[in-house]
Amino acid sequence: MVNTISTYYPVAIEMNPDILKIENLVKSFNGNTVINGISLSIAQGELSAIIGPNGAGKTTTMLSIMGLNRPKSGTITYRGKDITGHAPFKIARAGIGFVPEDRRVFPDLTVLGNLDVGRRTPKNKSKKWTLERIYKLFPRLQEFSHRNAGTLSGGEQQMLTIAGTLMGNPDFLLLDEPSEGLAPIIVKVLGEFIEVIKQEGMTVLLSEQNTKFALKHADRAYIVDNGSIKFEGSIDELEQNAEIKKRYLAV
Ligand SMILES: Nc1ncnc2c1ncn2[C@@H]1O[C@H](COP(=O)(O)OP(=O)(O)O)[C@@H](O)[C@H]1O
Ligand SMILES: [Mg+2]
Hints:
The protein is of the alpha/beta class. The chain has a single domain, classed as Rossmann fold (3-Layer(aba) Sandwich). Helix content is 34%, strand content 26%. It contains 11 helices and 10 strands. A 6-stranded mixed beta sheet has the order 6-7-8-3-9-10, sandwiched between helices. It has a 4-stranded antiparallel beta sheet with strand order 2-1-4-5, with helices on one face. Helix 4 (111-117) runs parallel beside helix 7. It is globular and about 50 Å long. The chain starts with a helix and ends with a helix. Bound molecules: adenosine-5'-diphosphate and magnesium ion (MG). Residues 29, 34, 52, 54-60 line the site of adenosine-5'-diphosphate.
């Protein structure tokens, strides 16, 4: 038998390397363990969803990634570099953008002012987010560019928070329960917009209680409850798992 080169050297080109890895994260508050050994791997260019009820540990996990709390144990690696417990500004500079669940805007600054605050040139050669691109994506923000952010609706403020984070040109975006408290029509706009940033190649970690919304946009899902992962897999794998669906997703 003739061995071809490929028999000897199997081609091992990794198409989607993991850019963020969490290993065995543990976090407690006053002796109460709220994250009990969570591990995640986020592949470049994918949208991974952390789905779980209120109090499951979604926000705490995101805050740990951003260096905004101190885990008891575990490691967080970004592009192969240990970032566990690093200063939040350094983690942001490394290319991770965070949209917190309480969607903070500067209410007394204009929309444009809010966008300017977050402006930063990209670390790598990825296509830069500019004001023009942001306005194209969110025409509303252009329309209201000179209005104070505090006068915008909740949905518009959510878009502004996301847009402001994009102005920092992250290459990995954390969205903590972005659909929460938004009217269905705005959730739809948010979803369209998530699809656009996905098409642009952005890697996203989305946390949601809104299962339907998360599953619609995710490539991969992690179901968390009580500080640990109950299921991990592709959306197809989840769709085929009747037991998990029934138990955790009420579908
Ligand atoms: N700063 C804190 N002090 C004490 N307990 C906290 C703190 N932050 C979160 N928790 C607790 O940790 C658990 C997980 O919270 P959180 O990560 O906010 O959940 P989720 O975002 O999934 O709703 C909850 O039981 C919450 O009460
Ligand atoms: Mg939360």
